[in-house]
Every structure is written in C-alpha cells, then in structure tokens.
Amino acid sequence: MQFDVLTHPTPTSEQRRAEILADPGFGVNFTDHTAVIDWTAQNGWQNARVEPYGPISLDPAAAVLHYAQEIFEGMKAYRHSDGGVYTFRPFANAARMNKSAVRMALPELDEKVFVQALEELLAQDKEWVPTGEGEALYLRPFMFATEAFLGVRAAKEVTFRVIASPAGNYFGGELKPVRIWVSRDFARAAPGGTGDAKTGGNYAASLLPQQQAAQKGCDQVLFLDPLHDNAIEELGGMNVFLVTSDNRLLTPALTGTILEGITRDSVIQLAKDRGMQVEERRITLDEWDRGVTDGTITEVFACGTAAVITPIGELIDGEKTIASTGTGEVTQAIRDELLGIQLGTVEDRHGWMHKLA
Question: Given this structure, which CATH class describes domain 4-168?
C-alpha cells in the first residue's frame, strides 16, 4: 500500500527528545508522527498516510464512543548494535488483531500492510527509540469505529492508526517480584464473550479490581474462573506461568476467556527448547497453594509485552498469602533469553525479529 507522508512542521527538538529518552516512563510521551489508514464499507482500506501526531477529530456520535467497537495491539521496537530498529513477531500481532477484528465486527487488515504501517512510522521516528537497559519504543496499533450514527450495528467507517511511545521498565527499573491480589468479586471475561479479543472494554472492566488491588498494596490483580473450581485465568494484562520441581511449565489453557499472548506463546517455545514439559490446562488456585506449600511449584511468573517477564512473589487471597520464591533460575533464564533475542544479543533461532528501520 502506498503511504503519503506529511512530516511534522515543528518536530520535537533534539534536546527535548534527549530529556524524554533519559527518563521515558511508560506511555506518557509520544513520537512526532502517527500512521493512519481509513476504511469504508464501500471502498475498503484507503488513504494510507503518515501525519503529525495530534488530537483526533471525532463526531460526538462516533460509534466507538457509544458501542466500544475498538481493538488494539501492543508491541516494542528495539535498537540493535547494527544501528537498526527491530520489532518482535509483528506478523503474530497482525494475525491476533485480525482475530480481534472478526470478534468485534471490524474489518480485517492485510498483515503485510499492518507491518508496513509500523515501518512507515519508524522511517520518520526511529530516533525516538531509547537505548537504556530494559527500554524500548512501545508501539500501539489500534482500530476504531468512526462512523457517526446511533444504531446498534457494525460501523461502516473505521480508522486504523499506529502511535509510538518511548518506554522504560513497566514495574520500575529493578526486576523484583510483584504482589498480586486475587479478585473474588469480579471476573475478567465469560465464555462466548470477548476475553480472547484485545479490545478496550476488557481492560476497562479490569480497572475497578485493579484499584482494589492497589488499595491492598498489590501491583496487579488475578482473575479466576468461578465456573471451574476457581481455575486461574490471567492478570489484568498478563499471562501466568508456574514452574514445577520436576521441570514442567504450567499455564492456563486458552479457553476463549484468556488473551492469546504473543509473549506467552514465545515463553512456551523457549521452555520446550530447554527440554521442559509444557502443560496448558486448567490450574486451580488450590493447586497453586498446595504446590507452593509442598515445594512442587518452585517459581511463578507473569508475562506480557509491556513487562516481558516478571516474577510473582506473593499472591494475596483475602487474608491469606501464598508466597513464592521470587526470581527463580528458570524465570531468570527464560527472561534473559527472550530479552536477548529482542535486543539482538542472543541468537534468534526462530526468526522472530523483524527489521523496521
């Protein structure tokens, strides 16, 4: 697809960009440009362009504001030693976005065009990629319904955009075990719902229990499946893994209520490469508790694009605490290998990295 390019008339100064990259935070600063493609039911995808980053003009009746017809992805771009900018498994993100689009009655976007939009944006904003330890340029492709109407049907006008934000470590600079609050009052998703689509509504539903977790001094919230003996599902935005004493790696099976994480899939592959037996199945909270108590579960960690891999130190279930060992050997080894692949310092055996600029 041909992209028109309109460069920013007053881009961020080198000095200001250097100040931002010195302490990028997470999701608070944005690059100078955005990639955009429009869609209509009559003409399909059209008007591809890169334009200055800025506010979006929307009609008050835009469908996304009333019926939450919206999806998004989360990715990172890394600066390698050859000076190039690379991202991790972008075609997997493109495929997942299309799966989300089908579920939310939005149009699918050709996977090659999805990746091209990333390339077009990075061609303009590659100087925004930070190089500090644990830092990257966070990429946020998203799609939303723009048609102005008040009727419950799929919108006939849609926009796809990509924005980018320099990002530091999600949970702070030092890798340390996090505390997780078990939500007993709320469920993240229901069978037949939108749990396996990456749509904003799922995250909106997690905000209240996340606030409860914060009030309890916890970093994240764990959701359960009350229909199946309180089987664990996922955190507010991360998948969960448990390491056993006999070299197994356990993770909840994808049953339609859990997001199919790209990092999750990569962790499973790296664990198999290490000779671990991976079990994707229902795992109850009771099994987690018993395993930690009798020593058969030796490590627990969460994973996702933003935080990569983070050890879980304590699970708080009401007045009860299930304590894990913290950053264990397996957690550290898989994290080091995954980050090494992403940063270009470890062999990319599976061909996961893609050069953007």
Answer: alpha beta
Runs of H (alpha helix) within the chain: 14-22, 63-67, 90-103, 111-125, 200-215, 262-273, 285-294, 329-343
Query: Parallel, antiparallel, or unpaired for β 4-5 and 136-145?
Result: unpaired
CB 327 within 8 A of CB 174: no
The phi, psi pair for 241, rounded to 5°, reads -130, 145
**Predicted confidence band of residue 98 (pLDDT cuts 50, 70, 90):** very high
- Beta strand ranges found along the chain (DSSP E): 4-5, 33-40, 44-52, 70-72, 75-79, 85-88, 136-145, 157-167, 178-182, 220-225, 231-235, 239-244, 248-252, 277-281, 297-304, 308-317, 320-323, 353-355
Beta strands at 220-225 and 231-235: parallel, antiparallel or unpaired: antiparallel
What is the mean predicted confidence (pLDDT) over 99-108? 98
Residues of the chain with CATH 3.20.10.10: 178-343
Per-residue pLDDT of 180-202, as tens digits, reads 999 999 988 888 999 999 999 99
Q: Give the pLDDT of residue 172.
A: 57
Query: At CA 223, angle to CA 272 and CA 154, rounded to 5?
Result: 95
What would the mean pLDDT of 204-212 be, rounded to a whole number? Answer: 93
How does pLDDT run across 122-165, given as a tens digit for each residue?
999 999 999 988 899 999 999 999 999 999 999 999 999 999 99
Q: Where do the CATH 3.30.470.10 domains begin and end in the chain?
A: 4-168
Using the structure block, give the residue that is written with the tokens 């030796």: 298
Q: If you compute the radius of gyration of the chain from its CA atoms, what whole number of angstroms results? A: 21
Residues 178-343, CATH architecture: Alpha-Beta Barrel (3.20)
At residue 266, the 3 state secondary structure works out as helix
Q: Which residue has the higher pLDDT, 117 or 325?
A: 117
Predicted pLDDT at 345: 95
What length does the chain have? 357
